[in-house]
Amino acid sequence: MPGKLKNIGVVGLGLMGSSIIVSFLKAGCRVIALTPLSEELEIGKKRVLEQLNLCKEMGLLSENEDYYTNNLIICDDYNFLKDCDLVNECVIEIEEIKKDVYHKIENVVHPKCIISTNTSAIPINILQQYFIKPDRFMGIHWAEPAYSTRFLEITCGIKTNVELAELVQKEAINWEKEPTLLYKDIRGFITNRLMYAVYRQGFELINKGIVDLAGLDKCFQYDIGQWITVMGLFKRMDYEGLDKYVSSYSVIFPLLSISNEVPPQMKRILEINGRGIHNLKGLYNHSSESAEILEDNLSTFNEEIYKLADLYRIKLKQFKLSEIKK
Amino acid sequence: MPGKLKNIGVVGLGLMGSSIIVSFLKAGCRVIALTPLSEELEIGKKRVLEQLNLCKEMGLLSENEDYYTNNLIICDDYNFLKDCDLVNECVIEIEEIKKDVYHKIENVVHPKCIISTNTSAIPINILQQYFIKPDRFMGIHWAEPAYSTRFLEITCGIKTNVELAELVQKEAINWEKEPTLLYKDIRGFITNRLMYAVYRQGFELINKGIVDLAGLDKCFQYDIGQWITVMGLFKRMDYEGLDKYVSSYSVIFPLLSISNEVPPQMKRILEINGRGIHNLKGLYNHSSESAEILEDNLSTFNEEIYKLADLYRIKLKQFKLSEIKK
């Protein structure tokens, strides 16, 4: 059940926006779903209801469908946002469009309304400059589909009131998330930043002839996949025995990549305009059939791992393992 | 069914050794299980049979138990190794002891027998110097439990005959592994090297005050865990759309950590002799109960994800997605 943030606005009814809407509905919030494009109102409605249905089929809804549709208004009129406690913008990643949307939102909402963006492309600090009251603005970055993933990054811009971000983090637990608060806005947020460290290191090993691309991929997939869901990074270290890490840090850190170069195979991809499975030009050979299987696989796995992870999540919660040593 | 490597020797009957033995038995190999410590023969026998039983309980054995025990000799006499096609050493990580074991192995096996080590602590290049025929020696590094994980790193030392390593890689597919061949011996092999890049980057973000340790941990766990099992690293990039990575590489690589320093919280851990869940002094607060749950969780999850991953693995195999563009 929602706490202090009961009335939620979501602006933008794309794939991401509609799954975020369903996530809020599932949490018992009232949602104003707004498209900034009147001509997309009908397709937007359809998309939201489709996502709601998918969520229902996954068995993630505890009430019947009416309960959720009664809590939902789909519209193209910004005035409907006036009672919102939180608005989450999910429109296209174009700064000028977002700027225009923010003006329209800020024009109608009450002074205490928190405004947020799902952007992963434009720094929060840059978008924040378009606000009259910038302290109420922050990033709320979801994974897709929002209703069946736990991931949530809440990012403070330089002018964000941290207390508001902490409030959102607290509320996000009611949305059934495992929210992470970023006190500063950094490019790539957390997981991208960490994964880019992996890409940099990975390409270096490949290009030094130590391992081939598929070999490295399998290694990471089958090693990390075997424990990440129950442990995360640092709990894994506690499990493996912390002592052995301290000494190997000083040996291995100096061996790690410090390259800033785009790897040659990625430059070649750029030359042939490779977009991976989207135009069947990628690091791997893809056919339209294999690309489809990959999409299907992710969609089914997503559902399975969400439910599986929960069993372990609940057991550990009892022991408040998420509390960190001071 | 095994191909060219039918007769396998495993030296060392610890937890790792016994689960490797079961992995070979499961693959239909004949196994000589040898303990270098006569006084550990009985406990070693017990350990191997326990692991075989666990493997059976997981439903991973296709034959009845007799089939496997008939293929198994547990002994303390190196002469039993004389007909082995491959010997895998899994004794304690002490160079002098390994050296002694290698002399005893090489003394009895036939000239074509491949000899390997499960070490993760001592470089293959160093151990290789203890061989009369060093070209037949390589690393074969397993994850635990060996019979219910797909991970396998095969590592060439500087004197290893690469063709032999490629033969082992090919055979390892019969052992139901997803084997990775390392053409050169590097510290930390592949996954450790990649994960150390994550640790370095992660601690930097934490120590710059951008995120706290538990927040970063959740982020990585719930983002990566949501897809790693079906995609790996590079297939994920193909899926997300490769084009967007090329431009962000040149932006984000220069922002990544290049620090060689052991993070201060890890130095503090060293000062208090913190060994994580093993002495309840770790990065997280642990109690003996929560440590036990963590162990239980990993053990159950390990089984679940092994089976779950297989569904996706089989579907993709049909399309040979693991073939890389030349």
From TrEMBL, chains A, B:
- Spell out the InterPro entries in the cross-references: 3-OHacyl-CoA_DH, 3-OHacyl-CoA_DH_CS, 3-OHacyl-CoA_DH_NAD-bd, 3HC_DH_C, 6-PGluconate_DH-like_C_sf, 6PGD_dom2, NAD(P)-bd_dom_sf
List GO molecular-function terms, semicolon-separated. Answer: (3S)-3-hydroxyacyl-CoA dehydrogenase (NAD+) activity
**Which Pfam family, giving just one, matches this sequence?**
3HCDH
Instruction: Give the record's keywords alphabetically.
Output: Oxidoreductase
- What this protein is called in its record is 3-hydroxyacyl-CoA dehydrogenase family protein
Q: What class of enzyme is it?
A: oxidoreductase
**What are its E.C. numbers?**
1.1.1.35
Superkingdom to which the source organism belongs: Bacteria
Q: Tell me the ranges covered by the 3-hydroxyacyl-CoA dehydrogenase NAD binding domain, including all copies.
A: 7-185
Q: Which organism is it from?
A: Sphingobacterium daejeonense
Q: Which family does it belong to?
A: Belongs to the 3-hydroxyacyl-CoA dehydrogenase family.
- 3-hydroxyacyl-CoA dehydrogenase C-terminal domain spans which residues? 188-283
